[in-house]
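Appendix B. Raw example, untouched.
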Amino acid sequence: MTLVNMNQLLAKTRKNNFAVGAYNVSNLELVRTVIEQCEEDYAPAIIMIHPTELRYCKDDFISYVLTRIRDSKIPVALHLDHGDSVDSAARAIHDGFSSVMIDMSAEDWETNVALTRETVIMAHRVGVSVEGEVGTIGKTGVHIEGHKKEGIYTTPEEAQKFVEETGVDTLAVGIGTSHGIYPPDVTPKIRIDILQKIVQAVPDTPLVMHGGSSNPDEQVADAVKNGISKVNLASDYKNAFFQKAREILAKNDGWDPNNLFPEAIEAGKKVVHHKNKVFNSIGKAKLYEGIDPWRSDKI
């Protein structure tokens, strides 16, 4: 299989009762962690790169990512996470991403709609799918001890109007999750009742749950059963990866990546495998056998 856009990838999720995990990466080791484990699970995957991550890993890194995806036995979408401007989306499209997000959810309604629609028009010309966001996702902070800032729940009316006015392919919704790992004094609660109403309002639009890390498995699985098609993750598997790296560095003073990263990759893979089970995505790559690849050479 090969590179696909988000429309191709998520079209099969609701009718087959699963979601696709979307994992943030910014270096070769994290790419390996995600793709190798999803290949082992025969689960579809989404490789995500945030604008800040792209600034770190540089545009030429994307050539490696695309080569690895096209050599894979599973369908994979390459997605820009939380694009912060139309220009950032254009940069990703130029680099060969098959999907982009434009996140203007913190702006007023008119600005969010206008810039999302502009991105949709640009991206659809070359077959790139677009994710937008209405409502906002809370934040737990950079550190595990960070304090949660409340997000804004998405209403069914907003979701329907936003999809109609922008033409987005997928929609990120605020249903009670937050980015990062929750501090000990916060008990997350995914609002399934809100999700169900949004699904009724936009039945043909795949819905995305941001802030998938650190939520109870049963709540995430319930959200998938009730219409979530894509779950964004970074903190959970990266935390396992770097905790193992710290353990290794604390035990010896070596500096060779060959000695540092293999165990860290395995630690991250265990989390990815667990998430694929929660999303009911293990073995679902078989649903895409024979799918036509998304072709970036038409850009």
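End of appendix B.
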